[in-house]
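Hi everyone, sorry if this is the wrong subforum. Our group has a chain we'd like a structural model of before ordering constructs, and none of us has done structure prediction before. Sequence below.
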Amino acid sequence: MNLVIWQTIYILGGIAILPFAPFLYLQSKYVRRKIGRLPDAEGATRGTTGVENAIGNTAADAERKSVKLLVLGESTAAGVGARTHETALAGQVAKFLSRRIGKSVEWQVIGKSGITVAETIAELVPKIPAENFDYILLALCGNEVLKLRSPRTFRRDMLKLFDILLAANPQATVFVTNAPAVRLSPVLPHPIKFILGHLSALHDKNIRQFSAPLPQILYFPQPNEVVEDFFADGIHPSEKGYTLWSEKMIETLLK
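Answer:
Right subforum, don't worry. Here is the predicted structure as tokens:
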């Protein structure tokens, strides 16, 4: 398939569900009220992981044995479902990245719940410090699904974000978390689960295609299953979920 076909499926699907829009709106309100809203992770938004790997005879030795990681994006970047950023996505990815490459990882996170890719460009990118990052992790697409963004819009905005980040960090490797596996959520009812699940699957296929030719972009595809206590609220990962997710991402992307 290509973008034209995915965009057509998106448009036809929108037309098909239009008569049910009032019901879907009420159902979404009920689900939001039932699930509630977890807070962002607390504590420091930056840190260093794997310090023991950076021990050298001189400061220059230690510097050569460290890398910088930026985590940017929506609620999972903000650590919703975890107590601190060390036990959320940023800290866990840094931990497993450090183990994988044998260097300490200086990590920092810039996240905001509910943000889309376009909003990330407008609101979060200006907050990125003027540093050279070796790795950048993008935790996005959840709100592209929830806010019913089209495959064409998602592709356009993601490619723009890639260009911005790589222009500032030309040597960086960019990791991209999977489009949300809505079908695995234990709390979403049908038909919302069916509709959002199919849209998320379109986004997953879409980003697989447009990121494949880009050597510095590594996309982690949607999982087929998760453990029973992966979620904190049925939507966001728990601390165990962040740990398992981060470990699998690093293992897969740096294989």
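For your construct planning: The first strand starts at residue 46 and ends at 49. The CA atoms of residues 50 and 104 lie 4 Å apart.
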